[in-house]
Amino acid sequence: METLTLRDTPTVQGPAQAMQVAAPKVVVRYERRDISANISPSLLEISYTDFLEGQSDTIELVLEDADRRWQRAWYPQHGDLLEVQLGYEAGALLPCGQFEIDEVELDGPPDVVRIKALAAGVTRALRTRNDRAYENITLAELANTVARRNGMQVSGQIAPVRLERVTQVNETDLAFLKRVAAEYGYSFSVRHGKICLFARAELRQSKPELVIERGDVSSYRFRDKIQGVVKAATVSYHDGRQQQVRRQRVEASADSGARQSADELKLNLRAENAQQAKLKADAALAHSQDDQTSASLTLFGNVRLMAGVNVQLRGFGRMDGKYGIAQSLHRITRSDGYSSQIDLKRVRADAAGAGS
C-alpha cells in the first residue's frame, strides 16, 4: 500500500531549483482525430466524473468562443465520439474512455460553449422505458440478455442466482438492471461500452491502494450518522412448495465496526426461495452499514483516484480508516490546474452475520 502525499504529484524544477507542480495535460480526440492543439487556447475547463454504480461516466468541456466558431463551423453534433485523457505532462495519463456528445449549451456574454457527453454505449435504447418479463433465468443470463439487446457485453463475475420470474415495468434498461443488481448486492454501471456488475462484498474486501494523509487534502467533509444503520434485516417470502410464508433474518456482525440503532429493517421484497431472501437481506443490511460514515475530499489531481478503489485515511481522528471511492471528479481548469474530488464511504467488516 502506497502513501499518497504531495510528493506523488509530478513536479518539475523551476528557475531557482524550487519544486513546482507539473503542468496539467489534456488529450481530446473528436471522431478519432486529435484536436488537443486546436482547443487548447480556448479550453477553460474539462471535468470527468467517474461513478461506481448507477450512472454512466460523464465528460464536460467548457470553451470560450469569442470568435463564435463553436456556434458555427465547429458546432458539435449529437452522438459524435469524444475520447479523453488527462493528467500531468510529466506523468501517466488517465484514460477516461470514449463518450458520445449528448448536450450542448451556449452561454454569454462572454460567449462560452459547454459540451456534455455520456460514456459511449449508453444509447437511447438503454434509456427507453420498457415493459418486459423474464422467466427461469439467472442473474448473469439476465444481464447478458439486456446487454445483447443493446449491442453490449457484460463485465464482472456474477454468482449463480436463479430467478423464476423478474419483471421490468415502465423502467429503462439502466434503471431495471440497477434495481435488480442492487437487490442482490451488486454494483451496476456502464463504462467503456460494457455493462459492469461487481459484487459489493468483493469491493469491500479489496486492500487499500493508497494512503491519504490530512495534509494532502485542501478541503474535506465527513458525515457520521446512526439513523438508518440497522442491527438486522428481514425478508419475507412465500414458499410455493410448502404454501407458507417464510422469513430470512440476517444480523449485523458483531465485529463490523458500525454502531447500529435498535431498529430492524423489514423488507417487503419479492423472494422466491431462501437463497434469494438471504441475498436480499444481506445486501440491504450491508447498504445500511455502508451509509453510516461518508466523506468528500478535495486534493491535488491524481489519476489513481478512481471509483471502486479503496483508500486509507489518516490524520482525521475517529474518522480514520478504510474507505471506498464511490465517485471521483477529475477537473482541470485554466485558473486552478488539476484537482480531484472524491466521495467515499467507510468500509466495514462484513455486515452480515448470522442468519435465521
UniProtKB/TrEMBL annotation:
SUPFAM superfamilies the UniProt entry points to: Phage tail proteins
Signal peptide: none
Gene3D superfamilies given in the database record: Baseplate protein-like domains
Coiled coil feature spans: none
Pfam families, A to Z: Phage_GPD
Sequence segments annotated as region (Disordered): 241-261
Alphabetical list of InterPro entries matching this protein: Phage_Baseplate_Hub
UniProt protein name: Bacteriophage regulatory (ProteinD) protein
